[in-house]
Amino acid sequence: MSNNRDQKTLTHGLLVTVFEDDGPTNIYNSTPLDDDEAFSMAIKTLTAIGTTTPFTKEEIRIYGPIPTPREPLQALALQFSLRAKDSRDSRIAQFGRMIIFWLTTTSTNITKYSEFLKLMIKRTLRIYDVKNDKDLYNENTLKNIDEKIQIIDTGLDAYYIDDNDSIETFMSLSMVPDSAPILLLDSNNTLIKILFRDEPSPFKKTRIRNIVNEFKSNLPKSAMYKLEIIADKITVNQLLSKSGFETQSDLGLHHRFRLTDQLEFEELDEYVSRFLQQKRIELTKKILAAFNNKESVSITDLSANTGFDSNFVLELINAAVNANVLSNTTIEGNMVIFK
Predict the structure, then answer these.
(1) How many Å apart are CA 173 and CA 178, to the nearest integer?
(2) Closest by alpha carbon to 100, among 46, 169, 48, 149?
(3) Coil, strand or helix: which one is 188?
């Protein structure tokens, strides 16, 4: 297949291998490798990494970079399993069918995106509703997955300063202490932004600036780098969100980078779903507790305790009553009465 990727991407095509009952089969190939080269690489690598250990739910194993028949092209192998819809092999039927996504690249930096790629694959499989092996046998689905898991090198790197004044890299804020200053290094614009998530004293600002100046001195074109200190909490959160890092108010989208300037329905829908998920759980628990205990509950209280608008709560309960999901239930004024 032809490869029309933008030159800014670190990846140069996707190869998808499915371990069928009779052995591995490549079902999609947008890499520079021809079909014979792709099959040869897949067979050799699968022999080396093995295929017998069962996977846990949503587990993705990653191997590489692995040499390909076309140097300097390399491949990163992301291996996982999907439920087998139909298999004569009892082991595959029980543990799932093994799938391998091979991401080809000439970049030496691809491995630093390993955890990000795992998250992106999990997310993309959910978006396109890939629940079993047969769901992959759709070229449009595979093309969409291929496009979604491309990596664009934005020139942005992230670091934090630990308690020992050491500068460490990270891919998720879950790795970073709450009080640790964060550095966003923008190599394209020769700029380092120092983000404080607390209220730094003048002494702390000076100390951190000195640490960053020493760090900067070891960078190529060090003299060209400017430092920008940002301590406003709202601005800091906006920058972290825009850069794709998880924040304490993160809604579950694990964007290390934005991969496209266009927003699709599925992406926004998932964002909304994840935003509502915790509130939905709380609302469901409160209605369920009241229903099981036959206790009346007010719409106002349900709204206040879960953050949902009272009109939405009323509409939801009315719908559940009309659908007989909530039996022996009436709404009288502001009260929901479970009999």
Answers:
(1) 9
(2) 46
(3) coil
Domain 265-338 has CATH 1.10.3470: no
| Residue 166, C-beta contacts closer than 8 angstroms, at least 6 positions apart | none
What DSSP string runs through 226-250?
Answer: EEEEE--HHHHHHHHHHHT---TT-
Architecture of the domain whose range is 11-148? 2-Layer Sandwich (3.30)
The pTM assigned to this predicted structure is 0.54
Pairing mode, strands 335-338 and 297-298: antiparallel
Where along the chain do its domains lie? Answer: 11-148, 156-243, 265-338
- Which residue is associated with the tokens 């979604």? 148
Would you state the pLDDT for residue 158?
Answer: 83
CA distance 16 to 9: 19
> In the beta sheet, which residues pair with residue 329?
338
206 CA to centre of own chain: 35
What are the CB-based long-range contacts (under 8 Å, 24+) for 24-27?
24/100, 27/136, 27/137, 27/142
Which amino acid appears at position 298 of this protein? S
Pick the closest to residue 252 from 231, 226, 280 (CA basis): 280
Evaluate whether 56 touches 79 at the Cβ level (below 8 Å).
no
CATH architecture of 156-243: 3-Layer(aba) Sandwich (3.40)
Would 156-243 and 265-338 be classified into the same CATH topology?
A: no
Give the model confidence (pLDDT) of 118-164 as tens digits.
877 887 888 788 888 888 888 888 988 888 777 766 667 788 998 88
Residue 315, class by beta-carbon neighbours within 10 Å (0-12 exposed, 13-18 middle, 19+ buried)?
Answer: exposed
Between CA 328 and CA 325 the distance in angstroms is 10
Contact present, 196 and 231 (Cβ < 8 Å): yes
